Amino acid sequence: MPISGELDTAEELRTAATSGFMALSGQPDGPPLCPAGFGRGLDEVVASIARWSAETGAVVEVDWPELVTVRAALLGLRRRGRVSPNGTCRLLAGPDGFMALNLPRPDDLAAVGAIVEGDAVADPWEAVERALARSSVTDVVARARLVGVPATPLGQGEPGASPWSVGRCWPRAHRRAIAELRIVDLSSMWAGPLAATLLARAGGGVVKVETTSRPDGARAVPGLYRALHDDDQPVVVVDIDTLEGRRQLGRLVNEADVVIESSRRRALEQLGCGPDDVEARPGRVWVSVTGYGREAPGRHWVAFGDDAAVAGGLVAWEDESHPVFCGDAVADPLSGMMAAAAAFEALATGGGVVLDVSMQACARSLAPPAAVASAAAERDTGGWYVTVGGNRVSVRDRAAEAQLPR
User: Fold this and answer.
1) Where are the beta strands (DSSP E) in 125-168?
2) Arch. (CATH architecture) of 56-61+158-366
3) Nearest C-alpha neighbor of 5 from the set 349, 388, 367
4) Is the separation of the CB atoms in 371 and 226 below 8 Å?
5) Integer Cα distance of 85 and 93 in angstroms
6) 209 has which bridge partners?
7) Domain extents for the chain?
8) What is the pLDDT of residues 282-301, one digit of tens each?
9) pLDDT tens digits for range 136-193
């Protein structure tokens, strides 16, 4: 489902403007931007979800403009140029290109000294910029990854690459209705739970599994958590620091027809609960959503939605040499939708597979193949707008809407 890189439909521009997505892309005082092909690519993803979900259960219709802007609307986020809308990730220029560095956790901030090979001053970003001035993107990214901090050069991966790979692990099975299947969701945050939610919409019963030591981080944004989980969804909490907790986790995974997880590969392997460890089950579909895939070299690299998008080259361009962030953590909802599309297709064709869904590859599949200036909005006294079919279409700002009195 890679796209051609051309903004060739008026509807693509209209959707980007009216969804609020454009308002999240560009400089804070500059025009909202729309990367070429983004909307058309997602139209193809949701069409695939509708087609394959109908083969195993109810047809799932996906409102992708809502999904890619929902968190920004809840948190009141806006475009900030080379700073991600939530403020934790930055696009930085080095002598050998651009890179993204994300510092969303206290441990990431504490690791800046190791990344810059010196003392981190009061402003960690200043320290990183100084390191880039005397080093390179390649070196800074390598040091960040070594200490588990999400970082990436801009635009890794081959244009046209598939968002996921398929590995055969178990025998195929006769197709069954999704309502008959045991679905276990071990994932957290956004992409994995979104895939589970879409399977549930087709009629699947999803059991969510959390650990006592690491509850789902999406709970910090209650509105997003509610959007991804039904109020009556079963939740099982296991203590993986105990033998009984690990046994309980093993039983859940062994009995599952569908497993969704978003851990780095070694995490489940250490618990004896990876796809190579569980009992054979014909038709099982294992959905693994990670930053860079299950195989080397990226199997140990950390990623979040903003930096994973940059890794795939999914950015907006003010011109051919000035990239800015595209949307809010956009690789997360993209990966969730693509993981669901892959899972529905696998279930409809007999399963027995591990689906290796890479957030970087998902972003790459929707990124323009070259640095091409993005379509830009215009401004008049009424605000930002785009022209579609000779008519002016206002650029929606969902953050501003959220602040209006109700």
Assistant:
1) 151-153, 164-168
2) 3-Layer(aba) Sandwich (3.40)
3) 367
4) no
5) 18
6) 236
7) 56-61+158-366, 106-149
8) 999 999 999 999 998 999 99
9) 999 999 999 999 999 999 986 566 678 999 999 999 999 999 999 999 999 999 999 9
